[in-house]
Predict the structure.
Amino acid sequence: MKNNKITSRDVDFAKWYTDVVNAAKLSTYSNTKGCLVIEPNGYAIWEKMQQVLDYEFKKTGHKNVYMPLLIPENLMKKEGELIEGFAPEVAWVTEGGQKHLEERLCIRPTSETLFSDYYSNVVKSYRDLPLLYNQWCNVFRWEKETRPFLRSREFLWQEGHTVHATKKEAEEETLRMLNIYNDFFHNYLAIPSIIGKKTNKEKFAGAEYTYTVEALMYNGVALQSGTSHYFGQKFSKAYDIKFLNKDNNLEYAYQTSWGVTTRMIGALIMVHSDDYGLVLPPKIAPNQVVIIPIGDTEEVNTLANTYKEILNKNNISCYIDNSEKTPGFKFAEAEVNGIPIRIEIGKRDLENNNITIVRRDTREKLSYSTNQNIVEIVTDLFNKIQTNLYDKALIRRNSMTFRAKNLDELKNIMEKQPGFVHGLWCGDEACELKVKEIKGTKSRCIPLDKEHIDNGKCMVCGKDAKCEVVWGIQY
Amino acid sequence: MKNNKITSRDVDFAKWYTDVVNAAKLSTYSNTKGCLVIEPNGYAIWEKMQQVLDYEFKKTGHKNVYMPLLIPENLMKKEGELIEGFAPEVAWVTEGGQKHLEERLCIRPTSETLFSDYYSNVVKSYRDLPLLYNQWCNVFRWEKETRPFLRSREFLWQEGHTVHATKKEAEEETLRMLNIYNDFFHNYLAIPSIIGKKTNKEKFAGAEYTYTVEALMYNGVALQSGTSHYFGQKFSKAYDIKFLNKDNNLEYAYQTSWGVTTRMIGALIMVHSDDYGLVLPPKIAPNQVVIIPIGDTEEVNTLANTYKEILNKNNISCYIDNSEKTPGFKFAEAEVNGIPIRIEIGKRDLENNNITIVRRDTREKLSYSTNQNIVEIVTDLFNKIQTNLYDKALIRRNSMTFRAKNLDELKNIMEKQPGFVHGLWCGDEACELKVKEIKGTKSRCIPLDKEHIDNGKCMVCGKDAKCEVVWGIQY
C-alpha cells in the first residue's frame, strides 16, 4: 500500500518531505508570499506540543502574558546587537489609519525589547524577582526561502523571558529550560536530541551565550530545534531594568529567554516518517487510535463503539472511521496521517472472537482475541511504539555520528554521508569559517561536558584545542 | 478595607474601571501606541475562556487552524464591502527584508479573505463539506482610543469560519455558534446577555446578516460582546468557492464566521466588580481559592496543605499565600484580585476547630468547623456565588431595561439612566439615525422573537413598525 503521492525518502528527501506534508494535510502554501496555512492535522500536533510544554512551564513557576505584535523602531534599537542581527529580516508597518506613520513599527521577530521595556516599569526590588513570563504567539522574519514548518516568514512559537536578581539564578534558569526542551524531545517527540552551547558566531544576537537543542534528521542534516539564551545584564543595561538588591543598592537585573517553534513539527516528520506518510509517536499524536469497522453488522458496530468509549474514558484519543470509503482506502488514510494504532474489526474475524491491530511504526499486523483488555493492549503497544521510534532514531543517529581529526576527514565524511561530526576546536572564528567551506558545515554546539579540553589539537589549524564541537550541515 | 487605589464605581465609572484593571494587575499600557500588555492575571482569565470555548467548539465538530497574519492588498479587496468597512482601520506593511514592497500587505483586521482564498483551493465536492474551522489569534485595527480590553489596536480573539453546502446548514451554524456564546455568557461569565440580529446599518461589513450577543454593564452602557455572521454566497462568489453538489452541478458555497475577543474580560469587570476590586465568577476564575494561614504553627500549616491538596485533587484551583506580608495585606490582595473564596486558617480559631471562609462576592465572613468536608463547603459556595452574581446582574439589568413609545420617552430615559430600551422600528435607516442624535443611542439588536411585529408604530416616525429593537448607548 505504498502511497503513490509520496516520493521515496531515499530517492529525493526534499520532495519526500513536501509530499508527506501535503498527503497528511498538515500545511499548505497561502497567497501571502512566504507564509503558510497550518491545516487542522498540523495544528492539532502543535496544540499537543503546546499542552505538554505549557504544563511544564507552569509547573516550574512560569506565567503566560501577551505583549504587542508591533515594536516602535526606537524601542527596537535600544539594544544594538539585537537590531543588527534582525534588521535584514524585519517587516515594517509604515501606514496605519490611512496615514503615513512618523515612526516605523516593526512586526516582532522576537520580543526581548517589549519584555525588557515592560520589566523596566515593573521591577523595583529584589522582592519582585524573579519574574518568569512566557508568551505563545506569532513572529515574523523576512526569510527568502519557504519550507513548511522549517522556514517561513511567519511562524508560531513560545518565547519565555525571565528576570532574576542574580547571575546564578538566571544561569540556572537558562539551563533548566534547556533541559525541559531536551526532555520533551526525548520523552514526547521520541527524538534523541543533543544539547550544548552555541559558539560565539552562532549565538543569538544580544545574548552572552546560547544553549541549543540539536536533532539529526533521517538524511543526516542537523536541525536547530530549540534555544535558551543567557543575557546577563545586556538588555537590563540597554532598557534600564534596575532593582534594589538585598543590600539596598540599585543593581541591573539578569535576564534569559528561550523558545521553541512550529519547526518541531518539521523535526518530527524528518526523523520518524516514511514512504507511507506521517509517523507520529503516540504521546504527541492528536489521534492515537482509529477503529475501522469492516462489514456493517450490529456486532461489528457495537464492538467499535464499546472500544471507542472505553479508550476515550482512559484518556486515549480514538475515533471510528465510519465514512463511505472502502476499508483499503481507510487503511491508507490512517497510515498517511500517522495514526499510531489502527484497529480493524471485521465481521469474519469477529466470528472467531478476533480483531486485527496494525502498528503504524512497523506496519505489523497483530491478531488479538476480543477477550483481552483493549486498554491494556493499546497502552502496551503505545509504550512499544514510543520506545521503538526513539531507539530507531538513536541507532540511525549513532550510525551517522562521526569523529574527525582534521579537515580532510571531515570532508570525506560530509561528502559520503553527512551527520554529526565531533571535532576539536581552538576557539578561533577563522577556523570555524574554514569548516564552513566544506558543504556549509557549521558548528552545531559545544556539548556541555566538552567546554574545556586539555589535551588535543584543533581539527582545522592544529593548535591547542579549547573545546569539542559537534559539526553538521544545517537546515 | 476599601482599596484606596480604586475610585468608587458610582463616582467615576471610567476611572473606577481603569483602577480595577491596574490594581488587579490585569493589563497595562505599552510603548506601542494603542497596544496593551496583558499581564499574567489578565491572561489567565483569557486562558480559562479559551479552554471552555475551545472545548465547546470541538464538541460541535470544529477544528483549529492557522492562517497568515498578513494579507496582500489585492486579495483583501476581492470582496468590496469588507475592505470598504475596514479600510480606515488597517495597518499596512510596505517594507520587508530591507526592500520596499511592490504590493502592500495589511495586518489582518479579520480573516474572511484568507479563509475564503484557502477554501477556494480545497473545496471541490459536497463531500468535502461542511468545513468547520476556527483560529485563535491576534488581529489589528487602527483604533483612535485605547481602553484596556475594550478598545485597542491589537486584540486577541477567535474567529470561526465555516463553509456549507446549503443555505440552511450555514444559517443553522450561525445560530448554533450564537447560542454557544450566549450559553457561555450565562453559565460561565454569569452575565445575562441578550441576543438578536443587528440592523443592516450595524451588521458586519460583507455579511448578509449578523447576530450579536449584547450585555449591559453596571453603568447602563451596552457592550457588543460576540458576533456570528451569515455570509450567504457573498464571499464564495468573490473568492470563487464552488463545489459539485449532489446533482453534479457547480454551486457557490455558503459561509459563516463568528468571534469573541479579549473584550469579554472587560465585560466581566464592568458587570461584576466593585469598589474593592475584581470580582470573578468561580467558573471562570483562574485561582478559585486562596488559603491564608494566620500564625506560623504546625497545625495551621498542616491544615493549609491538606486543604490545598484535597481541593486541587478535586479540580479546584487553590494556592496558599505564604508570603511575608501581613494577613490584612493578604486579605486585601485576595479581594482586589477577585479570588472567589478565601479560607483563613487562624491559630486561635483552630484551637476551637474552626476556620473562617470569606466570599468575595458578598464579602461575608462565614465560620465552619474543621470537621466539615472542605470540598463540599467550597463546591456549595461556588454554586451560590455563581448564582448570586448572575442574579444580581439580572436584577440590575432588569432595573435598567425600559420601553419607549416615542423619541421623547427614549430621551428622558437615556438622560436619567441609560440602559436597554425596547422600542418599535419601521426599518428605515433615517429613523435609526434620528435615534443616534440622542446621546449616540444605537440599535443594539432585534431580539430573535421580535423580527416581525404586526401591530405597532415606529418609535421615531410613527409609521407601521416592522420589528422591535433594543436600543442602547454603546461602549
Remarks:
- Chain B is about 35% helix and 30% strand.
- The radius of gyration of chain B is 25 Å.
